[in-house]
Write a structure and sequence with these properties.
This protein has 333 residues and is of the alpha/beta class. The chain has nine helices and nine strands. It binds zinc ion (ZN).
Length: 333
């Protein structure tokens, strides 16, 4: 027996078709090695498979028991190499774009508190869902993230990471009484591909926090994340007339598209100073005070989020709704 097709699919997707030992992208030439050999009772299930390139596969298999040289790859080591590589991919520490493995600088990492839930890890997702169902929270069993944070990594990117995010994370934790799960969707260039993991994460998020910089709306994905959330608000507005979008405005907004203008905005124009001197200015104190108040509103939405719907996972909508027709209000504090 070989590995089951669904096991192969899972290993291909989770490894991004890269070798789990040398991390090179192998594409069509990827091979799957039985960590515990079949002859020694190894199974064909997910836990016993590791995607490898031809060279690494040869190294793993080549060890000669009669003339040992060096150190053999032990099954437990192979599993740790594999899981480590899967973690690097699902955490966003590396990306594979057009067959090139690209490290993402550490400064772009999600804070530790939110890395504990990985959207791509099926086992962990199931565990989260199972615990929610166990707690009787079946209505919200589909949510994984509290917040989907969308921003363009341009001039304002360092400010978002250094000042906005830690402060937001801190106050939100205080407000909801637990570690918030924040999915960070950083858009590089306007032509960055729309990643399936981002779409899934948005579908499984309770609300959208979007940093509206001048270039935010140049990204098709940014437009789409706003449009999708507006569409969700339209679907649930009768029962849940809360805003699910929390824009943080960091520029004058002369060029913001019409369809988003009516959404209540958090004005950070005075605070969005991407220089380390920001924390030494009086504005920094005001920023903190304003953040605390605004985060309460986000927390209120997280607590009152509409029941999750399956349909959000493959929402085809691109049409941009008329905001004027939406009866959205800020959640009550
Ligand atoms: Zn390799």
């Amino acid at each position: 027996m070989a590995f089951f097709p669904e096991v192969v699919d899972e290993l291909m997707v989770r490894s991004n078709r890269c070798c789990c030992l040398c991390h090179s992208y192998v594409g069509l030439h990827i091979e799957i090695h039985h960590i515990v050999p079949k002859a020694q009772g190894g199974t064909d299930d997910l836990d016993n498979g590791i995607p490898l390139c031809f060279e690494c596969h040869a190294k793993v298999e080549a060890y000669n028991r009669d003339h040992p040289r060096g150190r053999k790859y032990q099954p437990a080591q192979l599993k740790r190499y594999r899981d480590g590589w899967f973690d690097m991919l699902s955490d966003g520490r590396v990306m594979v774009v057009d067959g090139h493995v690209t490290p993402v600088p550490a400064v772009h990492l999600q804070p530790a508190s939110i890395r504990s839930i990985k959207p791509d890890s099926i086992a962990e997702t199931s565990a989260v869902l199972a615990s929610q169902i166990q707690n009787g929270d079946t209505e919200n069993a589909g949510y994984i993230h509290d917040v989907f944070l969308g921003y363009r990594d341009d001039f304002i990117g360092p400010w978002v990471r250094k000042y906005f995010l830690p402060c937001f994370d801190w106050f939100l934790q205080d407000s909801i009484g637990r570690n918030p799960s924040i999915f960070i969707a950083k858009q590089g260039t306007p032509l960055s591909p729309i990643l399936p993991s981002c779409q899934t994460a948005l579908a499984r998020s309770r609300c959208l926090v979007a940093i509206w910089s001048p270039s935010y709306f140049q990204s098709p994905w940014s437009m789409r994340e706003c449009a999708l959330m507006l569409h969700r608000m339209e679907q649930v507005e009768d029962e849940y007339p809360v805003s699910l979008i929390f824009p943080v405005v960091v520029s004058d907004g002369k060029y913001f598209p019409e369809f988003v203008r009516g959404i209540p905005q958090f004005d950070c124009r005075d605070f969005a100073i991407p220089a380390s001197a920001f924390e030494k200015t009086v504005r920094y104190v005001a920023f903190h005070d304003n953040m605390r108040e605004w985060v309460e509103r986000v927390a209120a939405t997280i607590r009152q989020a509409p029941p999750w719907r399956d349909a959000w996972l493959d929402e085809p909508v691109i049409a941009i709704p008329e905001l004027a027709q939406l009866q959205c209000t800020l959640p009550t504090l």
